[in-house]
Amino acid sequence: MAPDYIIRPGLLEETFVYQEIERRAAQRFRAIGMAEIADGRPTDASDLVERIRDGRLFVAASGLPVGFAMYRQVDTAAYIEELDVLPDHAGQGIGAALIGRVAEAAVEAGLSSLFLSTFRDVPWNAPYYERIGFRVLEEEAFSPAMRAIRSEHIAKGLDESRRVFMRRRLGKV
Asked: Please, are residues 23 and 42 in contact by the beta-carbon 8 Å criterion?
């Protein structure tokens, strides 16, 4: 990550900024024929506020926020619920730095791994996460909580046949 970026906790007064980052980051999906993702609603402000208050939302900033990651504890893992970087700041290691900060927080909390759900064939989704140490989980390895998350995604209209759960084990970060 370029030295002019910092990773810091999210701020309540920036909640709507994070929604705008999410909206703008989602526009990349339009170019690959996934307009339904590009047109989707951003994370609800109340969920962002809850993660900020819990200390589970981190921001990459260069003056202004350019990306964020939020997570919650599920089982003995940190579930990365959202990771977004403004398209004009992509490719600079910001996403990896945000995941690194989530990993540090997870280790501090005594959690054993990170996991996420993402699109299998979108270059900046599963292939990217694989490059930074995540591995695809087979469905028989899903916990009941993961199955519940999958059901939530289906209820929101996501095509889970195109998605995978991925996990990265944690040690000392």
From this structure: yes
Long-range CB contacts (< 8 A, 24+ apart) of 15-20? 15/45, 15/48, 15/49, 15/52, 16/45, 17/64, 17/65, 18/42, 18/43, 18/48, 18/57, 18/59, 18/65, 18/68, 18/84, 19/43, 19/45, 19/48
What is the mean predicted confidence (pLDDT) over 122-127?
90
What kind and span of H or E run contains 58?
strand 57-62
- Asked if 80 and 116 count as a contact pair (C-beta separation under 8 A), the reply is yes
Token pair 């199955």 in the structure block, residue:
147
> Helices 15-26 and 45-53: crossing angle, nearest 10°?
120
The DSSP bridge pattern shows strands 77-85 and 64-74 to be: antiparallel
The alpha carbon of 130 is separated from its chain's Cα centroid by a whole number of angstroms, namely 14
State pTM to two decimals.
0.90
Q: What is the pLDDT of residues 90-102, one digit of tens each?
A: 888 999 999 999 9
Cα torsion angle, 103, 169, 144, 37, sign: positive
pLDDT tens, residue by residue, 126-158 = 999 999 999 998 888 888 888 888 888 888 777
Cα gap 114→112, rounded to integer Å: 7
